[in-house]
């Protein structure tokens, strides 16, 4: 992964630190999006594609731990680095339990942050590289960018919602895609009517995928869905 291709989501409520960090990362060749609270950061994440998330622990509206859990519900592999003013062991342990890839305590050196980002991306790149190119689903080839699903000589053009939903299922392959996270990510709200709509889209995806009997989207009662191949 080339540095100029690395897209960073920075979630930091301190306006001075957020602006300085975003400017520094941009100057170093990263594509950095900065949001100043957890909810705004989460909404940015579900609307776009990022290579790494850097987020503060103590934030208004939604704290960093809650934000990380919601992000992990959509993409279990996205690298996450926590920023915190605290050095309490309990916070560090909680961060790693949620799935943090690294943890850096404020105040920090910007060069150290760059080093941590590069180290985390190097460790996780094999899981995330080229996901948005062709993805194999059994005998199918799914291209999220083109929103196409191909098998043999047949090609299906997916709608945006169909493609986004299948992308989430692929990212959580063999693991549960939580229903409420999928609804928030694709529909923006987990209300009843959107839930019924998602069930219709799941049925459509199952119909598209039935050409390969080894591919299944199963219901996990009370939780969500799981893509199996």
Explain this structure to me?
By secondary structure, the protein is an alpha/beta fold. It has two domains: 3-128, Rossmann fold (3-Layer(aba) Sandwich), CATH 3.40.50; 135-228, Winged helix-like DNA-binding domain superfamily/Winged helix DNA-binding domain (Arc Repressor Mutant, subunit A, Orthogonal Bundle), CATH 1.10.10. The chain is built from eight helices and twelve strands. The strands form three sheets. A five-stranded parallel beta sheet has the order 2-1-3-4-5, with helices on both faces. Strands 6-7-8-9 form a four-stranded antiparallel beta sheet, with no helix packed on it. A three-stranded antiparallel beta sheet has the order 10-12-11. Helix 2 (38-47) packs parallel to helix 3 (64-74) and helix 6 crosses helix 8 (192-209). The longest helix has 19 residues, at 110-128. It starts with 6 loop residues before the first strand and ends with a strand.
Provide key terms for this protein.
22% strand, five-stranded parallel sheet, Rossmann fold, four-stranded antiparallel sheet, alpha/beta, Arc Repressor Mutant, subunit A, 229 residues
List the helices and strands and how they pair.
Blueprint: E1 7-11, H1 15-27, E2 31-35, H2 38-47, E3 52-56, H3 64-74, E4 80-84, H4 89-98, E5 102-105, H5 110-128, E6 135-137, E7 140-143, E8 148-151, E9 154-157, H6 160-171, E10 177-178, H7 179-186, H8 192-209, E11 216-220, E12 224-228
Parallel strand pairs: 1-2, 1-3, 3-4, 4-5
Antiparallel strand pairs: 6-7, 7-8, 8-9, 10-12, 11-12
Helix pairs in contact: 2-3, 6-8
Largest sheet: 5 strands, parallel
CATH T-level fold name of the largest domain: Rossmann fold
The CATH H-level homologous superfamily of the largest domain:
Response regulator
The overall number of domains is: 2
Assign the structural class, choosing from mainly alpha, mainly beta, alpha/beta, alpha+beta, or little secondary structure. Answer: alpha/beta
Catalogue the unreliable spans.
126-130
CATH top level of the largest domain is: Alpha Beta
Helical fraction: 40-55%
């Amino acid at each position: 992964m080339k540095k100029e291709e690395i897209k960073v989501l920075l979630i930091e409520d301190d306006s001075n630190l957020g602006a300085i960090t975003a400017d520094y990362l941009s100057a170093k060749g990263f594509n950095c999006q900065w949001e100043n609270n957890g909810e705004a950061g989460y909404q940015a994440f579900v609307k776009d594609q990022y290579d790494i998330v850097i987020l503060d622990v103590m934030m208004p509206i939604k704290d960093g731990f809650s934000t990380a859990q919601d992000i992990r519900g959509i993409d279990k592999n996205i690298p996450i680095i926590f920023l915190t003013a605290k050095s309490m062991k309990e916070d560090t342990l909680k961060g790693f339990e949620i799935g943090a890839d690294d943890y850096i305590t404020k105040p920090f050196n910007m060069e150290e942050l760059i080093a941590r980002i590069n180290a985390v991306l190097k460790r996780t790149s094999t899981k995330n590289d080229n996901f948005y190119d062709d993805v194999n689903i059994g005998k199918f080839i799914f291209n999220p960018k083109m929103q196409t699903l191909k098998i043999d000589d047949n090609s299906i053009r997916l709608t945006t919602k169909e493609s986004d939903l299948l992308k989430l299922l692929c990212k959580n392959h063999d693991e549960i895609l939580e229903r409420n996270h999928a609804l928030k990510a694709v529909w923006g709200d987990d209300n009843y009517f959107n839930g019924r709509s998602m069930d219709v889209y799941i049925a459509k995806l199952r119909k598209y995928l039935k050409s390969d009997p080894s591919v299944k989207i199963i219901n996990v009662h009370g939780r969500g869905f799981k893509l199996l191949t």
